[in-house]
Each structure stands twice: as structure tokens, then as C-alpha cells.
Write a structure and sequence with these properties.
By secondary structure, the chain is mainly alpha-helical. It has nine helices and no strands. It is globular and about 50 Å long.
Length: 207
Amino acid sequence: EQVNELNLLVKSELSSIGNRRRRQKLLLTIMESCQCIWGMISNHMSRNFAYDFLQVAKYLERADMTSRILELTSMLVSDKRSEALGQNEGLFWATLLRVINAQQMYIQSNNSSLKAKKVLAFLIKDEVFPRSLNYSLKAVGHYLSYLPKGNELVAEQIALLESMQTYSNEKHPPENIRPMMDALQVKLTQLSGQIISTWFYPDYSSK
């Protein structure tokens, strides 16, 4: 019911999104509705295969989104025009953390000023923040393991996880994060394709 109501709302408001204020209001409403839907799923949905698929999709999307934000950040930091960012480093990284609702958890975890190396380490390797790459990739493997034939794909997930755990500030300065995120996105796409071919569009011709 909530999904249908949101669908109808978006359709009815499409003609008005040219207005910036109404567009922003609609986006906020969509975000709030999505949070409500996920809350209902978390509290009321049986823990069956359908739930496991939803969780795999959620954490794959989170990992992809976080990697794209970090990729864009790397481009900004490495750009010659970013010299001004050095004068406002704290504001820049605070804005990045707010984009993915991570600022409060970062402060609790680090209890320190906002520095590039610490923010990147938090978003890539943190063990308990749900939007970090490390946490998201672990969650993908966790829910894959509950699915029939899921263990066949866990090896791919483990490889992704290990690639993130090799991150270090010394090997990967902020301006060099982009290639690492590019490689991760390619592997996430491959894993997504394997999930689709395993459960949604299996190839029976080879059997």
C-alpha cells in the first residue's frame, strides 16, 4: 500500500518538478516514504528468501553509492581547482559525511577533526557503520549465504571484501582513490549480473 501510494504521488507531481521548491519538496517526501517502507520491511516482513534478496540488493546499492561518492570526492581533491579546498577541509569533509548521513557516527568513532585520511578510512573500512564499504560488502555475503546456491557467489563477495581491506592511507592517498572505486564498481556490476543469472534469468541450456 505504501509503495502504491508513493508511486501515485510521484506520477501526480511529475508535471511540477520544473519548480525548484516543489522538486525539493517532492524529493524529501520520496526519501521519507522510502524510509517508512524500509521500516515496515524491517519490523514486519518474515525472514525468508524474499527478505534476503531485498537485503542483498540494499547493501549492493549502498556499496555502489558510497563508492561513487568517494570516486567523485577523489576527482575533486585531485583537481587543480581544489587548492581552495585545503583552506576549508573540515567543511568539505563534513559536507561529504552529511550526504550519506555519516557525520554523527564518524564523530563518535573518531572523536577528532575532519581529515581526509580518517574520513576515507571510516567510509571504506569501518566495521560497524552500515554505509561503509566494508560493512555493506560483509552484509551482502551474510544474506547471500542464506539463499539456495548463495554460497557459490560468496567467493566473489569475499574477493570484494578483501580488496577493500587492503586499503591504507599510505597506499591510497585521497587523490588516488578513484581507480580503486572504479575497480570496485566493475566487480559489483559483475556480482549483480551473477545474482540475476543465478536466480532470475538462469541459463538452462548448459544443463
